[in-house]
Amino acid sequence: MFLRSVNSVNETWGRGAYLRAGLGEFSSLGSLEGARRFRIGSSRNPLLHLMLLLRNTNIHVRSSEIGLQNTTGYLRLGADTHEISRPVVIITDLTVELLTRQRNARSRYERHELEQIVEWFNQYQQWFGAGEILAIGVEQYCEELSERT
């Protein structure tokens, strides 16, 4: 899966390519047999809606700008806690304005809905990275598919 591999790519252009490929993989899940009865747009999960908007933006409008952000996490092993710092890939230009360049984003969503999901995504990608959050979205989509088919 491309999204889980984004952080392992060394070049910025490669990270962006992996994000776009992962978003393409995500949208192609809609062509699976069971998925034909369940459209991403009917999900109540805002992350899935954002992913579809990001996919369409990256394919039809322009590629997202990609950057690296250092993040720190903590790992407990028994009684010991270890601090771990690592760079994560983030989408640096994710804004409501970028998403609303698409007609379907303007017609389907209220501005405050887009503001909420963009704010949420931008906050959490600083900690986990865009690829990880988007990969979780793919897993959530698959769970919804299995529940509805």
Which features does this protein show?
149 residues; alpha+beta; 6 helices; 54% helix
In short, what is this structure?
With 149 residues, this protein is an alpha+beta fold. The chain has 6 helices and 2 strands. A two-stranded antiparallel sheet has the order 1-2.
Would you mind describing this structure in some detail?
- With 149 residues, the protein is α+β, with helices and mostly antiparallel strands.
- It has one domain (3-148).
- Helices cover 54% and strands 16% of the residues.
- The protein has six helices and two strands.
- The chain has helices at residues 12-28, 46-61, 96-99, 103-108, 111-128, 130-148; strands at 66-77, 80-91.
- Strands 1-2 form a two-stranded antiparallel sheet.
- Strand 1 (66-77) and strand 2 (80-91) form a beta hairpin.
- Helix 1 crosses helix 2 and helix 5 (111-128) packs across helix 6 (130-148).
- It is globular and about 50 Å long.
- It starts with 11 loop residues before the first helix and ends with a helix.
- The mean pLDDT is 88.
